[in-house]
Structures
1.
Amino acid sequence: MSAMTETNQGSVLDDVRKALGRQNTLSPAPLEPFLEPTLAIDARELGERFIQEATAVRAQVHRVPDRRQLVQKVVEICVNQTGEVAISGAELLREINLPEELTARDLSTFMGDRAGHEQMVARLANCGVGVTAADFAIAETGTIVLSSDEPNALLVSLLPPVHIAVVRSEQMIATIDEAIRRTGSERMTGTNPTRSVTMITGPSRTSDVELVLSIGVHGPKELHVIILE
Amino acid sequence: MLRQSRSPIRMTLANPNLTQRSHAALENDVLQGALKRATDTFIERRREAITSVADWEALRQRARLVKEHTINHLDYYLEQLVTRVEAHGGKVFWARTGEDVSKYIIDLARARAVRSVVKSKSMATEEIELNHALEAAGVRPVETDLGEYIIQLAHEKPSHIIVPAIHKTRAQIADLFEEKLREGRPNEVAEITAMARKRLRNEFLSAEMGITGANFAVAETGSIVLVENEGNIRLSTQVPKIQVAVVGIEKVIPRFDDLSVFLRLLPRSGTGQKQTAYVSFLNGARQSKPESGFEFHLVLMDNGRTRILADEQMRESLYCIRCGACLNVCPVYQKIGGQAYGWIYPGPIGAVISPQLQSLKQSGDLPFASSLCGACRDACPVAINLPDMLLALRAKAKESDIGRKPTEQAAMRGIAFLARHPTLFALSGKLMRALARLLVRDGRIQSAPLSPLRDWTDYRDLPAPRGPSFRQRWKQKDVK
């Protein structure tokens, strides 16, 4: 920390304390936890609710019964696109041999391994599809949650015009408060406290021109969520 | 009866006052149409969205409690936030003023040979006019939110917190893009979006620094939380290696778990969405190894906020989460739009915080631009008591020289004098009724020769005075 930073830190914090009428920082008793009143969602209906909400914000949701059909579905989406298929470092995607399966069908893939940041960004910007897994999904809003624990997930899900996210049905949770509790406690106790998390609800959108909805302004124009049962 | 002004105030001053700016807005048909559409749409979407939570009022009261608690212990939570951010490899800079912020960022840009900066919609950096400072220092700032990009190309000021370019039609934007981008004229909204996407994608890939604000900063974890729909904030924070967040000191919240209440309230209040397309939770530098070249700088900005904090009556104006709901429901905003407020914070919240962040001298007229109907307080997701603060600011303006109009003071002294002299009071009433009758045409007073009566009759008719006065009827026991 530079000398200037320290001086300023003193002055702004001093001003804050002065405004609050004290000279030393006071440690507050934390607020009582808040039990949020929520609309209950039956555990058996999580998948249905997710599909309903995600579809309402123009995500395309697919359900597949097994890993073979999961690969099939990814291939089906990718063959309609031009450019390479970028694949994040998610374990699930390695387990189903996605890179090999796509290569076998004449689709070129990009894993982002070992590339420097600038090179990776430049190459991802030219990819047609990005495939990631998701940490979990939130039924009440049709949201998927990705984190930087999954190598390259945040960029692979952002730069190509089409994003495919794979989520297992047991990763479905009901509400945003559950998602926040989970993300927060992972952050507090996890080995990597600097992990970044992104919640994604539908494709990129804007209504900045005459309030007309326009899809795909900066992020992906298409979002596919594949639920693996 | 409402009608078009017959004697519009002419724009003769370089720096028009609130009344003149409002007249200009009222006479702009394009703006009136856009404002009606925007505010109607947002009110309806919000109304629908809040039915999707179990108990909206309970959420509001909780959010208010969290904000109240945090603001009353701001010193503690700021210290905690700074400790966490630094532990994660981020650098923290405390800025007393807007100039401090600009200087820090410019010094950083120079030290890292930064030529262009991608910016994501941030009220804090607009408040301090960071773009001007960057340009003057030879660093090119590019606004990347579509609405802000349009505003930047047009060299204008935003008219709404959530949809900054709402005052412009698609045809005007098409003309603007054709002139400035020289890639033809985009005819549809989708073409406008595609053209901006292409142009801005190149900016993202070449910029060395990304600057954002923050919706929330979590003390417990040192997380910066950003809420958006377009993806430009994700690109600004993930693509350039140097990331700077300019954050007002009031944005801190204690715990990560506190976020769920705010993430339910903010999208529903702002755009009427259950959730925005993207919510990012960022913690410090992306890789803690210094040789990776990733940097995260958190700039904590005071710029007048401790002044608000010191005033217990006004302190709750720091609870604001910048959703824009109070703008949409305000009958004054609905007619005059954001630019008439003269600074970047419009609507009821703007009328409360602008005079405090700037000065009563600069924007002490804003608190008078309110009917005090209370719709803003009802719509506010943190239940800020805006009408009471508007009243308090009016009192402050009247106490100082700024709000004191000689004519108004003379009139008040006159009325006070008459009220103490019953005979004169009765006589003056008689005189006024007689004068008023001279102005009656077709049973109404349609135009008056002098202000302040003319200010009324310019837009509305006054009914003609009728029959005897109240005092006469009282004497004759004619009062029921």
2.
Amino acid sequence: MKKNAYHIALWIFLGLLLILTLAPILWVLISSLKTQGEMLMTPWAPPKNLLWSNYAEAWKRGKFLTLMQNSITVTGASLLLMLAFSTMAAFAISRYQTRYNNVMMVYLLVGQTISAAMIVFPIVLVLRQANLNDSLPGLILTYTAGGIPFATFVMQGFMAGIPHEIYEAAEIDSASESRLFWSMAIPLAKPALATVLLYQFMWVWNEFPLAFTLISTTSKRTLIVGLYTVVNGQLQTNYVLAFAGATIVSVPIIALYLIFQKYLIQGLVAGAVKG
Amino acid sequence: MKRSIRQHRSTKWFLAFLTPALVVYTLFWILPILLTGIISLTDWKGTSRLATASFVGLKNFQNLFHDSILSTAVINNLLYGLVMIIAVPVMSFIVAYTIESFVHKKVFFRTVAYLPAILPGIVTVLLWKWIYNPSYGLLNQFLDLIGLDKWTTGWITNSDTALGAVTFTSIWKTVPVYFVLFMAGLQAVPQDLIEAAVLDGASRGQTILHVTLPSIRRVTTIVYTLVFIDTFRVFELVYAMTNGGPGYYNTEMILTYAYKTTFTNSNASYGMAISMVLIALIIVVAALQMKLGNRLADD
């Protein structure tokens, strides 16, 4: 009896949670397929006809092809560099005992906690000195740098749990250090790599202050900045197209999330949480 | 003898594997932090050449105390932070615990409940600006529907409700981020401890209070620290949703004000002084958390 009441309460709570989470997101999806009039007058009704043409028009007017190309380039290159460098750094910190290990962790922590918007102005100055201002490579290097601490912490936490005997067995076979890294550490750390990939992809793909400030040329903008600009400009009063644009921007990241969602927790349990 | 050679080799490899990360991170992340500190000690506006600037010591920091817009931003930021720190960890734990109690549909609920965290911040803003819209917004339509039409308002254009509306959106987006951390913590709680408590006749509330919460206090400390730090990192939500308005800086936050001071008002050195205070505060809090966290782990 008491158990039943508890279960009913649980269901009601979870139901409310689902509505509060999903209703706004579904509303964007549904509205993006309506006419403007339908959206304003009957916001709760399903669309009379599915207006897929909203997507074609938003795609054209927002110049989403260029934006999509830029975002894919920036996200792909940043993640590649970030994952490569962080995995190497995590391997170094977890395998070798030197007197610099703790210094290194503290040094990384300093950059982990601050946020990009606090230092974006001096980043502009550094990129200008390096002739990388207003360029995709400049943005890519900045994301790589900013993502290194979190990526290294998670990878290091995971690698620290790899038993030493595994490496020692390979050492007896006189495998070189780089062999140990490639053929033992990386394959073993795959779950942590997937976790880092998911979290950092989310960060870079969705990131606003850096992409907004470091890039001034329209044709070099990322999707997020392009969306922000177009919904505050051309499409300011065209809500259905704005929602179609928002959906275009969100679909890739949601797809990646659905594929990788089991790593959302898996890598964290070993790394950040148990620490 | 052999041991010392091996030690040397270790340091060499340690540095070899570390160098790429170290170089990029130092140049593009740490150097800007140092520059923030240096520029904050000058009178540089950011428009001329840096060489033309001169050192003015702590003058920018002294001016912080006579800036009425900054005090408004600090008060807004603290109010926002207070609500976040009260609401977010508790709600995140409740969501995590509820989902974790559902053995069958756990993955489904977790996946859906995390969606707001996945959504780009700019999309979240666009969505909630529409929910808060005075004439066609979902919130007002809903209030009409349940007969509370006298409550309807332009939620982010009315200066009385704007800060609350921004904060609510932030809670919507932040709780998903942290319930996942709590779930990770809950999954690490030894099941036999809970079973032992239940066998001893402990109620559900007692089990949570005396078994679950003590076992996850490491995660709890991390969540409280991160929510606290996040409070001072809040940026795009406000920048894109209200741009600090409506009216007299009703939703201005410390970081949005620092950004505008630097880029819009072309007063780089003063903007850097504000940023520097935030950076220092955050680093101190993170360091304290690390110390505290290590102490908890030693228990």
